[in-house]
Structure formats: C-alpha cells, structure tokens
Amino acid sequence: MTAPATSNLLSPRPACDPATELDARFRAAIRAVTGTDADPQIRPSGNAKFGDFQVNAAMALAKERSTNPRALAEEILKSADLAGIAEKCEVAGPGFINVTLARACTESCLAKLAASATLGVPAPSDPHAVVVDLCGVNVAKQMHVGHLRATIIGDSLARVFERLGRKVWRENHLGDWGLPIAMTLAKLVRDRADFQRLSLDDLNHAYRGAQKETSTADLDAAYEFHCGPHRIAEFEIQYEPARAAMDDAKKTLVRLQSGDQEIVRLWERLIEVTMEQVYEAARTLNVKIGPENNRGESFFRDRLGGVVEAFTKSGLAKSDRGAMVVPFADRERPLLIQKSDGGFLYATTDLAAVRFRTFELDGSLVVYVVDARQRDHFKDVFDAARMIGWNKTADGAESTLVHLGFGAVLGPDKKPLKTRSGENFTLKDLLDEACERGTAEVMRRAADPASPTHGLSQTELAKIGAAVGIAAVKYADLSGDLTKDYVFDLDRMIAFEGDTGPYLQYAHARIASILAKSGESAAAIDAAPFALGEPAEKALALHLLRYAQMTLDVGRSLETNRVGLYLRTLAELFNAFYQSCPVLKADDAATRLARLRLCAITRSILADGLSLYGIIAPDRM
Ligand code: ARG
To answer: pLDDT (tens digit, 9 = 90+) per residue, 346-370?
Structure first.
C-alpha cells in the first residue's frame, strides 16, 4: 500500500523511546561536525549482537561531501555526547555507528513508559481535528460485508487518532436522501405498510419492489433502438403503471424535500429501522458508532445549491447542455455537479461534505474509508475541492483529503462472499457465525480441567466466545494490506495459533493469569524497580518502548497492519522472555517482582494495542 502522507506538521517524538534521545544527541554531533542539521537516521539494530540501535546518516552525508564515510562516522561518534545513554558505541561496516544502550537508560525509559497515561504517546502538534468517514450504509438496504470493512477500518483509525490525542469525528455519511428512498417510501405508502411494525426485510423488499415497478428499461430500449411505432405503442401501454409509480415517487420526493411533516415522519422511520441493525452490529463489533455520528446525505441537502453557486461564481463550473460541470485540466471527463433537470448528485453532496468537514469540523485530515471502486469519484471530488480551496480549516491550515479505498471480502472460491444457499452474505449472518464459532472453541477448551476457563458459567463462556469470534474477524480485516481483497476463512482466522486475533488475546490472557497467580498486589508490582539483566528482558523492553512510535506511524501511514505486526512481535518476544527467565519461580524476591512488572507492562501494551483494533482482551481464555 502506498503510504499517504497525512500530516504536514512534523510528528512529535515519544519521550520514553531511547531513539528520541539518541536522535537529539547525534543530531547535535552531526551539526558540530558538518555544520548542517541532518536526520541521524536512528534505526533499531537488525541484529542484537551488534547493538540495540544503528546510526546510518554518515554514509549519505559522506557521499554529499565526497569524504570517507567511516572517517566521518568516527568524527561524529567522537563529538557525540552519549553520557548516560550508551554503554558501547562503534563504527562498523561502510560507516554505521552501532549503539548499545546503557542498561540504566533502558530501565529509566521503561519507568517513564510505565508512568505515562498515554503509554508514551506525545501530545499532538496539530491542534486540528481528524475526520473519519466510515460505515456509509444506505437507508432501506441491508448492511453488507463491504460496509463491515468501512465500519471496522474506520473505527480502528479513529481509535488510533484518539490514542494520538487528536479530536476525532466519526462521520457516518448515510445514503438517506434522493429518489431511490422516495421510491421506497412511496411504495410502502401505496402498499399501506404499517410503519410502526416495519422490519429491515420489509424495507429491502419495498426497495427492490419499487425498483422493479418503476423500471421502463424495455421501453427505453425500444426507443433507443428505434423498434418502430407499433412496438413502442405496445410498450407504452404496458408501462403505464411504471410511469404512474415513478410519478408517485417524484411527488413523494418533492413532499420530502419541502419538509411535508407527514412524509418526513415516515422517512425518519425508515432511517430508524435501517439504523437499528447498524447499531446492533456496532455493539457486537465493539465499534463506536451511534446516532450522534449520523450526518448523511440529507444533512447537506440545503447546501447543494450553494456548492453549485460557489463553483459557478469562481468560474470553475460551466454549463454543458443545461447541466453544470467542473472541467479538469488533466482529463477529459468533467465532474457533473448539477443535472439539466436541476437535480444534484452524489458528488455535489460530497463537495458540501468536504467543505463542512474541513471548515466547520476543523479537520486537517479527512480520511474516507470507502470501497476502492469509488476511487474515481473521490479523485474528482478532492481535485474539485482543492481547486476551489475547500481543503482548508477555518484558520487556513492545509487539510489532507485521503480516500482509503479498501478491497473486497471474498469467499473461499475467491468470489464475493455467498452463504451456503448461494445468497449474498449479510453482515448479521457473518457476525453470528463468528460468535458461534468463537464460543464453540472457548467451550471446547473450557472442558479441560487445567484450563483457566474451566468452571466458568455458560454465559461467561459465551461472552468470551463472542469476543474471540469478533477478534478473529477484525484482526483478519485490519492486519493485512487494506487495499487488497482478502479471503474470508473463519477456520484460519479463529485459530489460537498463528497470525490471528485470538492468538494475541490468548497471549494477553496468559500474562493476566501469571499476574493473578503471583499473589502480588498491583501496587507492589508497580512499585518494583525494573531490572533488565537478561538479553530476553532487554529485547522485550526495547520493543515495548517502540509502542508510541508504532502508533504515530499508523497515524501517518494509515496502515493498520502495523499494529498487528507490532503485537505479534511483542507476543513472541514475551514468549522468549518467559521461556528463558523464570518469573514466578525467580531466584530472589526482587527479580520476581521486577519480572512481574515487565509482565504487567507487556499486558497493558497488548491490551492497548488490541484496543486500537477495538478488540476486547479477556483476562481468561
Ligand atoms: N453510501 C455510500 C455507498 O454505500 C458510501 C458513502 C461513503 N461516503 C461518502 N462520503 N461518499 O456506496
């Protein structure tokens, strides 16, 4: 995935990360030697044998100056003040500087991390908000698997930006306005539907029925292909009812648009019925969206005329056979913003929404988590918005507009997901199955008398099982390249081993049970000094110290898979530590407490990392 640059402001650096301090010290040394301010290029060392970090800048700097890189590295190293930070530093290879941290430095960084309420994440340097366009369901339609991705990915990014201390707006741009909805509404009224008892299935049915009833496809084709007056007359009679239904729908739309109370009340009911399923799915998925996030197409209805006017006045839009279009310099196809009959389009609404999000919500970053197939739409909308200058916050800061176009969810046959009976999978089917499978797995394990879940009630097991099932689905969705299609394979996703959500939940629960078994109070553990004597302890600690930087990197790149990768490595480093360093049976009380503290902080970071995916981390599994 190509990383979109999402911020024009330099990210602050995490104070508890030793790389931050190394960066400052080597930057000063480079300035002293070369007189320039250059990035020292501090990287975690590829091999712990050579050190903990390497400083890579000398090679490029020497090239610019046509000097010897090793000699330059030696000079930089000589003038670097590394007191209290490094215990060993040496120039190696073509001109790297290998740095081994002083144990006291790692320990004090870890203490800082443990004391930090934000797990080391620094306060944001950008005071503006982040807007995440997510979910985007359509009224009167079943929520499908694509909306699952828009919801899960959007919520996860929102959580990341919340962790980064940003003000976040989750915007659910519902398809709740326009002719198709009026058609559905008109059909329900014609059919004398009981609006108090409507189900989503009824809405769906009416939606499809209305589409069919108003279709004049054959007649339109007869005209287009000049089928002759006789045939056309025949079709005209046949399509009388379709014409009438369409007229009815258009009248309903006018009543809706003019705020007719009766129709508006019925329309609100359609939204209510549609949204019930969304809120239910959100609860199951542990996704934070509710009515407060609904700002659908209807919200922008009174601003559409203003959009066209603004583009016309600024000379960016022109009339084309009665319609209004925005031409682009670099492509043939213009953006249609008003039809010749005066109607507005999806793009007009999105232009109004861009302006609202940057100017009124103060978003310096607006991320649209929408199906990759809408790429052209967003390219046009963003380009048009930039042309008119709507990519600016109220105080004039530049806003970055990003379409995060995600791939499709496929069945095992690599085709769009279907149920066993061959129908399109609804979201509910899928979530129900995931929760059932998770519960079955948790119950199977609980039958083992040695399992920490043995003896828990059925209700408790079902709760853990649902958390496992949902973790499986979310992790699979978020831990890959978001732009790619992926195969939905519950068997693989739900396994407790391998690259899965349940594996990480299990790692977390294991640490929780070690802490519980220790019999020590949280206060006693938190007060213990860290003691990183063993290589496995140090390796684990260094990875923990990278958590804040990883989170910053996700905010910058929007690559949610970095979280999964980080957590998997964390679980592996923890396993290696636990194997080589006895915790509960440590040699002395001080070591035992120090190791328990390392367990405790690993557990906090694992839980926090999982929460960036909105995955619940049970204490027992
Ligand atoms: N309702 C749209 C659909 O189902 C998605 C809306 C995405 N957001 C936006 N601002 N256009 O395709």
So the answer is: 999 999 999 999 999 999 999 999 9
Q: Of ligand 1's atoms, which has the minimum distance to the CA of residue 377? A: 11
Q: What token pair was written down for 266?
A: 């019925």
The amino acid at residue 284 is T
Give how far Cα 481 sits from Cα of 100, 443, 562, 610, Å.
34, 32, 10, 18
Instruction: State how far the Cα of 583 lies from the Cα of 598, in Å rounded to an integer.
Output: 10
Ligand 1 site, residue 173, Cβ cutoff 6 A: yes
Q: What is the CATH number of domain 427-611?
A: 1.10.730.10
Distances (CA, A) of 47 to 28, 90, 439, 444: 26, 14, 41, 41
How would CATH label the architecture of 17-115?
Answer: 2-Layer Sandwich (3.30)
Q: Does residue 175's CB lie within 6 angstroms of at least one atom of ligand 1?
A: yes
Cβ neighbours of residue 408 closer than 8 Å, sequence gap 6 or more: 146, 371, 416, 485
pLDDT tens figures, 382-421:
999 999 999 999 999 999 999 999 999 998 888 877 666 6
Q: How far does the centroid of ligand 1 lie from the alpha carbon of residue 368, in Å?
A: 9
For CATH 1.10.730.10, list the domain ranges present in the chain: 427-611
Q: Which residue among 141, 370, 373 has the greatest number of ligand 1 atoms within 8 angstroms of its CB, and so is best to mutate?
A: 370
- Ligand 1 near 136 CB (within 6 A): yes
Is residue 466 classed as helix, strand or coil in its secondary structure? helix
Q: In a 3-state reduction of DSSP, which class is residue 532?
A: coil
Cite the residue boundaries of each domain of the chain with CATH code 3.30.1360.70.
17-115
| Among candidate residues 503, 478, 492, the one with its CA nearest the CA of residue 412 | 492
Query: Is the pTM value of this prediction over 0.90?
Result: yes
